[in-house]
Amino acid sequence: MLLDIHTHHQPNVLSEAIQNISFKEFQAQKGGYYSVGIHPWDVTSNWETDFDVLRKTATDDRIIAIGEVGIDRFVTDNIMLQKAAFERQIALSEELRLPLIIHCVKCYNELIQLKRDLHPKQPWIVHGFRNNPFIAERLLSEDMYISFGDRYQSTVVQMVPDEKLFVETDESESDIRLIIKGIADVKGKRSDDFIWQIDTNVQHVFFKH
């Protein structure tokens, strides 16, 4: 089962996670799943050159998502560059028919407007969500998925439909099954049942081409 949709660590069981790795130094292991993208923190004036490298790397069959990509308001000196790079990677997601794993910090209005303007067909997943129920409801109303790590608001977890929810470890060393158990407890569900729900969501979003 693939349970962890976003980690920066090499998983103990390769097939259980999507590992986010550098597109510049892509080295995959047999049986692993990977995502690549230009993180908004890494967008520079040379991002188009980076994009050319990313595009070549992203065609590898072991890459099953584009990300993490997006917009981060805390990086204030290159917001326009971030948006340009993000839009190009949205187009790449559409071209390769790969889901998009999104990093968004205080730019949800911009994210939602892009979704409305571009009408993407590929799934959008907002990763590491820690924001409030109002923002979560807006994302869900735009048919986005929400992924939770080891920190989240219980009220938000409760309101996200099971079929729109993912889990991740991101930078954490936590066991993905413990994160799933915590979320299942918040939802009043059995951990084993919720593991099957996550696997169902993964199969639908990442492997239904």
List the helices and strands and how they pair.
Layout: E1 4-7, E2 17-20, E3 33-36, H1 47-57, E4 63-72, H2 79-96, E5 100-105, H3 108-118, E6 124-126, H4 133-141, E7 145-148, H5 154-159, E8 165-167, H6 176-187, H7 191-206
Parallel strand pairs: 1-2, 2-3, 3-4, 4-5, 5-6, 6-7, 7-8
Helix pairs in contact: 1-2, 6-7
Structural commentary:
With 209 residues, the chain is an alpha/beta fold. It contains 7 helices and 8 strands. It has an 8-stranded parallel β-sheet with strand order 1-2-3-4-5-6-7-8, sandwiched between helices. α1 links the parallel β3 (33-36) and β4 (63-72). α1 runs parallel beside α2 (79-96) and α6 (176-187) crosses α7. The longest helix is centred in the middle third of the chain and has 18 residues, at 79-96. It is globular and about 50 Å long. The model has no long low-confidence stretch (mean pLDDT 95).
Defining key terms:
single chain, 209 residues, alpha/beta, eight-stranded parallel beta sheet, 40% helix
Strand line-up in the sheet with most strands? 1-2-3-4-5-6-7-8
* Major sheet summary line: 8 strands, parallel
Helix content: 25-40%
Alpha-carbon distance between the two ends: 18 Å
Structural class, by secondary structure, is: alpha/beta
Average pLDDT value?
A: 95
Give the CA-based shape: globular
Number of helices: 7
Number of separate strands = 8
Task: Return residue spans where pLDDT drops below 50 for at least 5 consecutive residues.
Answer: none
DSSP strand content? 15-25%
